[in-house]
Amino acid sequence: MKSDTRGKLIIVEGIDGSGKSTQIHLLEKWLAYKGVSVFKSEWNSSEMVKEITSKGKKKGLLTPTTFSLLHATDFADRYERNISPLLRAGHFVLADRYVYTAFARDIVRGCNPEWVKKVYDFAIKPDVAFYFKVPVDIAVDRILIGRPKLKYYEAGMDMNLSNDQYESYRIFQGRIIEQYDSLAESEGFTIIDGTLNIEEQQNIVRKKIMPLLEGHQPRKRI
């Protein structure tokens, strides 16, 4: 959908452990320091949907289509309540995952690609979309350092990829990377090497964002 907003939408995508959340957090702090009115939205964070999704996961009742529709409902709620109004009001909105997360994950789980994209066709195209690309083994190692036990759906165990939880997770994330690589070309993602150190990545992010700040009226400091 074409944007008619005054604000700017900046999103980050990548598999778990790619470092994208760290980078968008640093970007949020930097923009706020520069006096930019900024708001950050995170995937699967709508209070309206979170409890339902959690119950479905615990009971193992989520089919690929149910999973997709729950996340779509979560996104639509956040989009209508926060993202769209703030963009129209001229704010910078940062999204830790956007519709492309659904495209990648739902398609890997077997949902029809055209159907998934149709569900999200109300969402505007971001001004900048960063894709933090890392080899699957590096991303998995990062995740397992802080999260020794994987969750059932997180590991892709519902897809019968492997009886081993960790091997299933690697296969699942590897397939998501394939989808992201395809989206990166068709959607014009800015690809960032997620194996670079944090400072190098953030410098690349800031240089890409700088042109969006031209003519933007900074917020007055109190």
Concise account of the structure shown:
By secondary structure, the protein is an alpha/beta fold.
Q: What is the CATH T-level topology?
A: Rossmann fold
Annotated CATH homologous superfamily: P-loop containing nucleotide triphosphate hydrolases
Mean pLDDT comes to 90
Q: What is the first-to-last residue Cα distance?
A: 37 Å
Structural class: alpha/beta
- Individual helix count: 8
Largest beta-sheet characterization: 5 strands, parallel
Molecular shape: globular
Helix content: 40-55%
User: Widest sheet: strand order?
Assistant: 2-3-1-4-5
**How many DSSP-defined strands?**
5
Report the portion of residues in β strands: 5-15%
- Number of domains in the coordinates? 1
SSE string, helices as H and strands as E: EHEHHEHHEHHEH
**Alpha-carbon Rg, integer:** 18 Å
The second-level CATH architecture is 3-Layer(aba) Sandwich
Which regions contain 5 or more consecutive residues with pLDDT less than 50?
none
The CATH class is: Alpha Beta
Catalytic activity: dTMP + ATP = dTDP + ADP
Organism: Nitrosotalea sinensis
Family: Belongs to the thymidylate kinase family.
Pfam family, one: Thymidylate_kin
